[in-house]
Task: structure prediction
Amino acid sequence: MSALLPAVAPWSRPPAARLVGASVVALWAAVAVLWPHLVPYAPDVQRPRDRFLPPGGAHWLGTDQFGRDVLSRTLAGARPVLQVAPAATALAVLAGTVLGLLAGGVGGRLDEVVMRVVDAVVVFPALVVAVLFAAMLGHSAPVLVLVVAASLAVLVTRSVRAAALVERNKPYAEAARLRGEPPWSLLIREILPNIRSTVYVEATSRLGDAVFAAATLSFLGLGLPPGSPEWGASVADNRVWLANAPWTVLAPALAVVSLVVGVALVADGSRRTTGGGARARTHRVRPARRRT
Result:
């Protein structure tokens, strides 16, 4: 015997804003893959005679202090951003989902321990924690991924735990416990499928945070090595020339803004469609197993 509730598909009738955001994200993803075939000049080649050329002519977005083509560097900078941010987001969502599911689904002392650690970390601003660890561990893409993921995982943990707490007290979870389901089965087969919308919304939301955090750390000199075309590093390299050559800063800065806004539109559209992670779900109660 089964009790069914109507399920709502999270991608039904996507809002126009989400389509715009998804198009922007898809565009930058394509640029990150194809930039070697799109750039008019090698992004790292220096041409001292072409320093600070304004936009136009052979250089559509001008050149920087070393005569490097700004358009080429902006396009090339999409790859390191879209290597670090999605990897950090995936790691943060994975860690946060596991910890949040254990804390909310199991409860008791495990919940207290996990949440005390999370609360202790949340007390400090995420950027401060990221700067601290980046300064200790050095400059490389793997370190940047770990630092950004650690700063975001605590936020995912809190959201997933809240959703798991709601689900563990619903009738279908009670029925699973009464028929003798082990704790791991209750978490993985019962609760996790019913908080997937929360996990999805967290993933899209934290991707924008990861892009901004990675760019910020690179701007502060704690991300990828100096000279990288990564957008945050490009802004840092050229910020002293903002008054005289604003195009050297505006191009990478607008690239960061466009990608963050695009991800935010996707996340907001997903949150509205799924009702903020709480939507109607289908619950099936399996018959009790016979005991011998």
